[in-house]
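Re: that chain you flagged

S.,

Sorry for the slow reply, it's been a week of failed gels. I finally had a moment to sit down with the sequence you sent. For the record, here it is as I used it:
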Amino acid sequence: MSTEEIRVSPNWLALREPADAEARALDLAEALELGSPTGGSKVIHDLGCGTGSMGRWLAPLLAGAQHWVLHDRDADLLALAAVDAPGPAADGAPVTVEAKRTDLASMQVRDLSGATLITASALLDMLTADELDRLVGLCLGVGCPILLTLSVIGSVEITPADRLDRRVAAAFDAHQRRMTNRGRLLGPDAADFAAEAFRRLGAEVLVRPSPWRLGPAHSALAAEWFTGWVGAAREQEPELAAGCEPYARRRLDQASAGDLAVTVGHADLLVLP
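Prediction finished late last night. Pasting the structure tokens below so you have them in one place:
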């Protein structure tokens, strides 16, 4: 489950964090019923934590003392996550953080021993089928709830519409499913794949939509997202390059003017073993 090929910019993570917080399915967080050791903290392991945005969103929604163990292979992102720690809890209880540089590909059940909850955000779509199967088995081996948020599902709606939208979207989705030296990425198929894999092993899975809804208040994020979206599409389908230049200029002008509205589909999963 190594994501070494896909380095994520801390600037991008900071830009998207407010939209992520707005998008995540609040009812799944509210459905969590987490016990904790007598007199102890809930222990929450966040896989592929990035700069720690999941903890900053979820910790204040949960009552009781919490200890977050943040896992990522990127030491720079981990350092930022440790500095910008989540909390306090919903009832004012303390929240502590432990950062661990971790390659998910080599993680074992013992590394998650004692977990009250396992979380991950924007991770599943960067995995191959074999990697996701391994992640499913790893998490179920711990025996606690699992909250997996913001997996892309291949749904993009842009207003006003443009004739190139669908072609660029199809090329982007193909890029999300591209072959890597680890195998073919699942991209927008990851959420369905994960839900099926968990259910096949006897877990209950709740699935909720968690779309980004980017309007004038998110103009900077919309522009950055669009630039990356078109760039990935052009990489996947180089013949798009000529037609994409004026298209990209139009869209970026609209984003700058606050005239671009984008809905990017995601799914959240709550797994109850």
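What I noticed first: The chain has a mean pLDDT of 94.

Talk soon,
D.
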